[in-house]
Design a protein that fits this description.
alpha+beta, 3 domains, Beta-Lactamase, five-stranded mixed sheet, five-stranded antiparallel sheet, Alpha-Beta Plaits
Length: about 525
C-alpha cells in the first residue's frame, strides 16, 4: 500500500470518526433544545386556551353583574311576583344571553327562584341537576375573602359549567337583596368555539374531585404545578383545572406539534450529507496530488465555518479564491446557503414577531422587548411606562358587525397606536384578541397619562359606530397604565392588568393608573 493511500486512508478514518462524533453531539443537543422549544410552545398554547376560557367567564360575569345591579331585580327579592320572572327570567331570555340556568337567593341563602334554558323533562329534574353548583357557591361564599373572584367552573350531571354569582342591590348600590347565580353549560358548541378561536385541539375530561380547599387568594383556573408532558410519541400536554371550591375536577389535554423536531431531523441529515460530501472531495484532491493546496485552503475553510458556527452570524462568507475547482464551487454553494439562511432567518424573525392582522408587534415581540426595556431601566435607573389597552365590548361588536368589521377596528387601533407612540424608542404590540400594549421608554407617569389621554381622544375622534356597546354609541377603549418601580416582568404586567381591570370595572372608556398618585390626577 502506497504512502499516499495510507495518508488518505488515515485522513478518511479520522474525518469519519470526528464527523460522526460531531454529528452525535449535534444530534443530542438539537433534539433536547427542540423538545424544550416545543414544550414552551405547548405551554403557551395552554395559556392561550385558558385565557379564552377566562374571557368566557368575564363575559358571563359581566352579564351576571348587569342583572344583579338592577332595580327591578332588587324589588323582586323584596316582593316576589310571577309577572317579573315570567317576563324577564324565562327560558327564552336566558337562552338569548347564553345562560343555561339562573338561581335567585334571598339574604338567608334560600332559593326564591330557579329557571333553566336547558331542555329537561321536569323542573324538579333540572333543579336537581344544577343543585350541586348552588351548594358549591354557598360553600365558597361562607369562606369568601375580599380578594376572591366570584366566577369559575364547576361540575354537574350534564358536564362542566361556567358559574358566576353577584350580590343583588339597587343600581345606586343600596340594599341587600340576596344573590344572583348564573351558569352556562360548557357543551360541544362552547368547546368547538374555543377550538375555533384558539386553533388548539383539546379535550376536557372529568376526574375524581380532590379535597376542597380555598386558599388565601383567588382560585386560578388551572393548576400550573399539574402540567405534565406525555412521551415523545404522543406529543401530549395535560393539566388539571380547579372548580370554584379549589378542587381538581377536570383534566385538560392538548396535542402539540413536533414539527420542529422533524425539521431538526432533516437538518441533521443534511449536515451528515454535507460532511460526507466534503470528505469525498478532500480524498479526491489528495489523491490528485494537490496536498499543499488542499490542506491550506481546507484549514482556512474549516476555520471560517467554525467561526460562523460559533458566532451564529450568517453574514460572513467563505473565501473561495479564484481557482475554478470543486472547493471554489463548494465555497460558493456555502456562501449561497449563508445568504439563504440569513434571509430566511430574517424573514422568520420578522414573521414570528409581527401580528399578521395589524402589522405591529405580537405577544412574543412584546415580551422580548419588555424584558429588554426592564433590564435597561434597571441598569440605567431610567423611567419606563407600560399601557395595556382593551377594546370595550368587542365581542358584542363582532357579533353585531361581523369579524371582518372587527378586524378593521383592530387595524385602525393599531395604526392609531403607532401614530401616537411614534418615538423610535416606543413599542406597540397586539398581545391578545382585542388587547394591545404600549411600552414607553424614558417616560414618566405624567407622560404615560398624556399618551393614554391621546389614545382615548383619538378613538373618540374616529367615531367608529358601535350600537351594541354598553358604554357609548362608538367604539371606545379602556387602558391600564403603570410605571416601572423595580419589580420583575410578571409583577409589572399584573399591575397593568389590574389597572385595566379597574378601568373596565369602573365604567370603561377611560384609563386607570396604578399605583395611584399621592394626589388626585385628572382622567
Amino acid at each position: 500500500m502506497s504512502l499516499r493511500i495510507k495518508i488518505i486512508s488515515l485522513f478518511m478514518i479520522s474525518l469519519l470518526l470526528t464527523s460522526w462524533i460531531a454529528f452525535l453531539i449535534i444530534q443530542h443537543n438539537l433534539k433536547q433544545n427542540y423538545r424544550e422549544i416545543e414544550h414552551k410552545e405547548a405551554i403557551s398554547q395552554l395559556n392561550h386556551l385558558v385565557r379564552n376560557i377566562d374571557d368566557d367567564l368575564v363575559q358571563l360575569n359581566q352579564m351576571n353583574a348587569d342583572w344583579a345591579v338592577w332595580d327591578e331585580m332588587f324589588l323582586y327579592t323584596q316582593k316576589p311576583t310571577n309577572q317579573f320572572t315570567d317576563s324577564q327570567v324565562n327560558p327564552a331570555s336566558l337562552g338569548t344571553i347564553g345562560v343555561t340556568f339562573a338561581f335567585i337567593q334571598d339574604r338567608n341563602d334560600r332559593t326564591m327562584f330557579f329557571e333553566t334554558s336547558y331542555n329537561v323533562r321536569t323542573r324538579q329534574d333540572s333543579l336537581t341537576i344544577f343543585s350541586k353548583v348552588l351548594q358549591d357557591v354557598k360553600w365558597v361564599s361562607i369562606r369568601l375573602l375580599p380578594s376572591f373572584q366570584n366566577c369559575g367552573i364547576d361540575t354537574t350531571e350534564l358536564g362542566a359549567v361556567y358559574v358566576c354569582w353577584q350580590e343583588i342591590h339597587m343600581t345606586n348600590g343600596a340594599g341587600d337583596g340576596g344573590t344572583l347565580i348564573f351558569g352556562k353549560l360548557i357543551d360541544n358548541a362552547v368547546l368547538d368555539r374555543l377550538t375555533s378561536n384558539t386553533g388548539i385541539r383539546f379535550t376536557l375530561q372529568p376526574i375524581s374531585p380532590s379535597e376542597a380547599k380555598v386558599p388565601g387568594k383567588s382560585i386560578p383556573l388551572f393548576d400550573a404545578d399539574s402540567i405534565q408532558f406525555g412521551d415523545e410519541q404522543s406529543n401530549q400536554l395535560s393539566a388539571k383545572l380547579f372548580n370554584i371550591m379549589g378542587q381538581h375536577v377536570f383534566e385538560i389535554k392538548l396535542n402539540y406539534s413536533n414539527e420542529i423536531s422533524r425539521q431538526g431531523d432533516t437538518i441533521k441529515s443534511a449536515i451528515m450529507q454535507t460532511i460526507v460530501a466534503v470528505i469525498l472531495v478532500n480524498a479526491a484532491i489528495l489523491l490528485a496530488g494537490f496536498h499543499f493546496i488542499l490542506i491550506r485552503r481546507l484549514r482556512r475553510m474549516v476555520k471560517e465555518l467554525n467561526s460562523v458556527q460559533k458566532s451564529n452570524n450568517w453574514t460572513g462568507f467563505i473565501t473561495t479564491y479564484n481557482d475554478s475547482d470543486e472547493l471554489h464551487e463548494i465555497g460558493q454553494a456555502i456562501n449561497q446557503m449563508f445568504v439563504l439562511i440569513r434571509d430566511q432567518t430574517s424573514n422568520l424573525e420578522q414573521v414570528a414577531n409581527t401580528d399578521s392582522l395589524t402589522h405591529i408587534g405580537n405577544r412574543r415581540a412584546f415580551t422580548d422587548r419588555l424584558k429588554m426595556e426592564l433590564a435597561r431601566s434597571t441598569r440605567d435607573e431610567s423611567d419606563l411606562a407600560l399601557l395595556i389597552i382593551d377594546v370595550d365590548c368587542f365581542k358584542q361588536y363582532n357579533d353585531y358587525y361581523g369579524h371582518l368589521a372587527g378586524d378593521e377596528v383592530l387595524k385602525q387601533l393599531g395604526k392609531s397606536l403607532t401614530e401616537i407612540a411614534c418615538r423610535p424608542t416606543d413599542f406597540v404590540a397586539r398581545i391578545g384578541g382585542e388587547e394591545f400594549a404600549v411600552i414607553l421608554q424614558s417616560t414618566s407617569r405624567g407622560g404615560a397619562i398624556h399618551i393614554a389621554k391621546a389614545l382615548i381622544d383619538t378613538m373618540a375622534h374616529l367615531r367608529l359606530a358601535h350600537v351594541k356597546s354598553s358604554v357609548s354609541d362608538f367604539v371606545t377603549i379602556s387602558i391600564g397604565v403603570t410605571v416601572f418601580e423595580g419589580e420583575d416582568l410578571l409583577a409589572l404586567m399584573k399591575r397593568a392588568d389590574d389597572a385595566l381591570y379597574m378601568a373596565k370595572k369602573t365604567g370603561r372608556n377611560r384609563f386607570v393608573v396604578l399605583p395611584e398618585a399621592d394626589s388626585t390626577e385628572p382622567h
